[in-house]
Amino acid sequence: MTAERELDDSGQSNGFAGHGQHHNCTAGGPAEMSDAPPIEVILLDIEGTTCPIAFVSEVLFPYAREHLADHIRAHAAEPEVRRQLQHLIDWDREHAGTLPVAAERSSQQQSSTVPDTERAIGIALAMIDADLKVTALKELQGRIWNRGYESGDLKVSLFPEVSHCLRQWRQKKRTLAVYSSGSRRAQQLLYSHTTEGDLSSLFSHWFDTTSGRKTDAASYRTIASQLGCQPSTVLFVSDARAECDAASTAGCRTAYCHRDGNREDTPGPHRRIERLDQLLLMP
Fold first, then answer.
1. What confidence tens digit (pLDDT) does each residue in 56-82 have?
2. Residue 280 and residue 202: Cα distance in Å, rounded?
């Protein structure tokens, strides 16, 4: 029996879409793929996959927005923060009209009546409200979350089986990696401050939007290259169908994770799971 046909404890076929092919694993399992290489890397999304969406949308993002202005004003003289603020201003200038209040800010900038710090604060808040995933903004949010974690204001509750699965995979010598739209620093902070303790040491690689958009197949090829492996040995797990599609196009194996509270979507050709421990019987 091949690796892709091994049954998990739910009785489902342990198959995955991949190798540039789509297999409908929700309808009786994939075709036999005797030439499929063993999975070496588990590449995990965070929001909706290992951590409830509600924690990110209802705890992390509001916390960052609430403290953003004060944090920027308090640290605006630091080189790292100055660089991030300049990136926000440059982005807004290059994408004039993208943000809801761009026209108003453009007039202020031309008259030079508003200090760069205050302009950047306005831009950052508008980006948050527009749910834009801009690297400089993610870095600023990461700084704020860092202080929240250190102060004890923030503590992460992962899905119940996640810590057990991570430890099991490491015992099986699997490489664990994260690919999230949040900055690498934010990812590390999240896994360092869980109710199960510090789990960050279980991961060896962290990938964010600097590796490319999660809906672009090229991003997954880049990640596989940086991991030093073939895409076909990478299993990507996400709650987003478009991300699974991109990873599969790149040649990765995929599993679509549907949790209570996640947005409704169909798994399409990807194996559908509801818990990570449905993947533990991979050879």
1. 889 999 999 999 999 999 999 999 999
2. 16
Q: Which of 215, 62, 221 is nearest to 144 (CA)?
A: 62
Angle of helix 79-94 versus helix 61-75 axis, rounded to 10: 110
Closest CA to 273 of 249, 238, 248, 242: 238
3.20.20.60, 3.40.50.920, 3.40.50.1000, 3.10.129.10: CATH of 3-51+156-279: 3.40.50.1000
Output the CATH code of domain 54-151: 1.10.720.60
CA 250 to mean position of chain CA atoms = 18
- How many other C-beta atoms lie within 10 A of the C-beta of residue 59? 18
Distance CA 205, CA 36 (A): 24
Q: pLDDT (tens digit, 9 = 90+) per residue, 149-195? A: 999 999 999 999 999 999 999 999 999 999 999 889 989 999 999 99
pLDDT in tens, 98-128: 787 544 444 554 444 457 999 999 999 999 9
